[in-house]
Amino acid sequence: MAVPWMAHFMLEQDLLREWIKKAKAGDPDAFERILLLHERTVLRFAERLLGNSEDAKDAAQEVFVRLHRHLGRFREESEFGPWLYRVTANVCHDARRRRKPAVPADEIEIFDPAPTPEQELTAAQNHALLMSALETLSEHERAAIVLRDMESCTTAEVARILGSSETTVRSQISTGRVKIRNFLMKKLRRRA
Amino acid sequence: MTQHVPEERLAIYVSGDVEASGIREHLQICERCGQIAAELEQTCSLLASVGDEPAAEDLAEVRRRVLGRLKRRQRPVWAWSTAAAVATGVALACFLEYPAEPPLPAAPQIAAVPPALQEAAAQQPPERRPQPGRAGPTRVAPGIRSVALVNQPDGPPLIKIATTDPRVLILLASDERTKTE
User: Fold this and answer.
1) Does B8 reach chain A within 8 Å, measured CB to CB?
2) How many other CB atoms are found less than 10 A from the CB of residue A135?
3) Are the Cβ atoms of A127 and B52 closer than 8 angstroms?
């Protein structure tokens, strides 16, 4: 099954097939190429799930070590992208359970020294606001929203990655969007 | 449609994940639902537009850590492979140093024994003679008798190779410490 939401995977399918074959045979250069090709996707996804880059780096490291360990199991390159997303989601889920509870999202204030009358937010403020909003979601809702709305996966692909039915994922996405919208409205009203 | 559309339904309507029949018409006449749908659309746009690509130095750090960790995992394997190759070499060297004993010359064939000698031989106590096929108490070329892995509490494990020559005991130690991950 193709993974159209990961354009670079599609473009690199032939190369990826070759690199996986070589990496399975123990070629460290081939594994490094696979790492270079996917590190951005994995680290970005981990940062979005965990909300900070330090935890995300630890998670990404663990994902690639697991990838190295399980390389021999891949039969088709098309399994590769969903597998990476799935393992990243699992590793991040474990990391969140281990770490101390974060500050409740409702208590997070957006630092905005000079808001404009139009209440336009800078890119950094947008990012901070959305990361806070994501914190209000459950684990499953967050993973579904990040995959669907930030990583541009289809609902079917999200369901496949998370190992859920499309109905379940659709419900998680709709609940997640409503929660984020409510959070954003509340914050913006407070600023106003 | 006279009732308001539930927010959760609007939330998947805005991305086309639900059949739009009835909802579109309702949004044209219901200001409240239209407002919520617009806000949900903005929420999706905001999520899609986040440009939070990882920093180059973070990517480099992850790469360095992954490759370093894999290298450390592989190193002990190499160390033990080298040790095993050395052990094999030492064992082979022992065999080459002590060539096997040359075969004993065949015993001369005796055509006939005088009767007097036959009687004398019958009265003698039986003598221990070498069994056919045995060369007797000759020196045996040393070989590997046993190989054992000896764990040391304060140091790296040793490979202990006992040879058939009791004077030769081979101990191999790896200078690499195995790191558990």
Assistant:
1) yes
2) 16
3) yes
pTM equals 0.64
pLDDT per position as a tens digit, A100-132: 665 555 554 444 444 444 445 677 777 888 999
Interface membership of B171 toward A (CB under 8 Å) = no
Q: Which of A31, A61, A155 sits opposite B17 (nearest CB)?
A: A155
Which residue is it, tokens 């081939």? A30
A36, A68, A130: residue with CB nearest B46: A130
What's the CA gap between B162 and A35, in Å, rounded? 46
Sign of CA dihedral B33, B37, B39, B40: positive
Q: What ipTM does the predicted assembly reach?
A: 0.79
B61 CB within 8 Å of a chain A CB: yes
* Rounded distance between C-alpha atoms, residue B36 and residue B100, angstroms: 95
Q: How far apart are CA A169 and CA A187, in angstroms?
A: 27
Task: Give yes or no for a contact between A125 and A112, defined as CB atoms under 8 angstroms apart.
Answer: yes
Burial class (CB in 10 A: 0-12, 13-18, 19+), B21: exposed
